[in-house]
Amino acid sequence: MPDIAVYNHQDRVTLTNELLARFESAAKASLMGVLEHRIGSRSVIQDLDEIEVSLIDDETIASVHEQFMSIPGATDVITFEHGEIHVGVETAVRQASEFSNDVDREIMLYIIHGLLHLAGHLDAKPDDQDRMNQIQEQLLNLVWSD
User: Fold this and answer.
1) Out of 28-32, 41-45, 50-54, which region has the weakest mean confidence (pLDDT)?
2) Keyword Hydrolase, does the record have it (predicted)?
3) Range of the domain at 95
4) Positions at the binding site
5) Which of 27, 121, 132, 142 is the most exposed place for a label (fewest CB within 10 A)?
6) CATH code at 12?
């Protein structure tokens, strides 16, 4: 089972060391559920030694989005098969406000979303997206309480 480390690489939104530790702990707690939902040959998660979660600002995630996916603009989460998950913290702030959600919970949702991508889940098609959303909400409710 891979280890998970969470790093704060942005300074736009204040995130305490305690909160980073909570994200890391909750990510590790959700890992068993994620592994139970892995999808066959598309899953790389069981082969990883470590998963690195980087919390980054809009400018950085927009650059990664453009460079690796040829899509301009910031996004919520980008996952790389070698075990990197990039989370757009400023996007999380906007989305949390839009959906009347807690920012910390929104960030944790994105971390779980990235873990599910490593477990082989796709979300380009509506049916796949619905299934992935259902699983990530279940896992979020298990590992994150407000």
Assistant:
1) 41-45
2) yes
3) 3-143
4) 113, 117, 123
5) 142
6) 3.40.390.30
